[in-house]
Amino acid sequence: MKLLIVEDEIKTGEYIKQGLGEAGFIVDLAHNGLDGHHLAMLEPYDLIILDVMLPDMNGWQILKSLREAEKEMPVLFLTASDSIDDRVKGLELGADDYLVKPFAFAELLARIRTLLRRGVTPATELSLSIADLALDLARHRASRGGRRIHLTTKEFALLELLVRRQGEVLPRSLIASQVWDMNFDSDTNVIDVAIRRLRAKIDDNFDLKLIQTVRGMGYMIDLPESGS
Ligand code: CA
């Protein structure tokens, strides 16, 4: 696996390069935007770690140019700013993930491994939410009111489907095919049992109930007051 780091802070760049080298990656390091852009356009990197504030050509310009040239390798950007605007901008321009400086090397390594496992499929979102329920798609974590909720893989997949299509009634057959990869058998109550378990974790301890049963049709997740 060959990675490119574009980072103008010499010490940070060398530190990341050394760590990734020790983790078994082949790593190129560019110290300014133009060199970084040149290398990224030329070499088939598996992933690029891109600092935002760079001399000559900044991280956003590099990212935009790469995506316009249909270079689809994962890009993880490094930002010194903790502002939402910055993150949104990066993701809108086609970045796959970001880290706010300063960060722990172990965190960087974990993010890189996740992105590489994910392959070339671009991740358009990192999180989903409705009311105080939040899903962290990269880490497969759910929380409500800031409190972590432990879900099984299937429960997370079910919740992700509901939140992704919030406000839309999802028939059991659709849920079965999307979450269980099976054709719906009307005798099974797999979906109903799964919804009940999910409710126990997501809704039971909260006044605002998010998962709704639409009789004869299926299930949906929505804010109660926005329903009909
Ligand atoms: Ca910088």
Describe this structure in words.
- The protein is an alpha/beta fold.
- It folds into 2 domains: 2-117, Response regulator (Rossmann fold, 3-Layer(aba) Sandwich); 127-221, Arc Repressor Mutant, subunit A, CATH 1.10.10.10.
- Helices cover 39% and strands 21% of the residues.
- It has helices at residues 10-22, 33-42, 59-68, 84-92, 105-118, 153-164, 172-180, 190-202; strands spanning 2-6, 26-30, 47-51, 75-79, 97-100, 127-130, 133-136, 141-144, 147-149, 211-214, 218-221.
- The chain has a 5-stranded parallel sheet with strand order 2-1-3-4-5, sandwiched between helices. The chain has a 4-stranded antiparallel sheet with strand order 6-7-8-9, with helices on one face. The protein has a two-stranded antiparallel ribbon with strand order 10-11.
- A hairpin with a 2-residue loop joins strand 8 and strand 9 (147-149).
- The longest helix has 14 residues, at 105-118.
- Calcium ion is lined by residues 8-9, 51, 53-54.
Which features characterize this protein?
228 residues, alpha/beta, Rossmann fold, Arc Repressor Mutant, subunit A, five-stranded parallel β-sheet, four-stranded antiparallel β-sheet, 11 strands, 39% helix, binds calcium ion
Shape: elongated
Largest sheet: 5 strands, parallel
Tally of individual helices:
8
Name the CATH superfamily assignment of the largest domain. Response regulator
CATH architecture title of the largest domain = 3-Layer(aba) Sandwich
Number of domains: 2
Q: Determine the mean pLDDT.
A: 87
Instruction: Quickly name the level 1 CATH class of the largest domain.
Output: Alpha Beta
Chemical compounds bound to the protein? calcium ion
> What is the CATH T-level topology of the largest domain?
Rossmann fold
> Total number of β-strand segments?
11
- Beta percentage is 15-25%
Kindly provide the radius of gyration, computed on alpha-carbon positions and rounded to a whole number of angstroms: 21 Å
- Please mark out the parts with pLDDT under 50 across 5 or more consecutive residues, or reply none: none
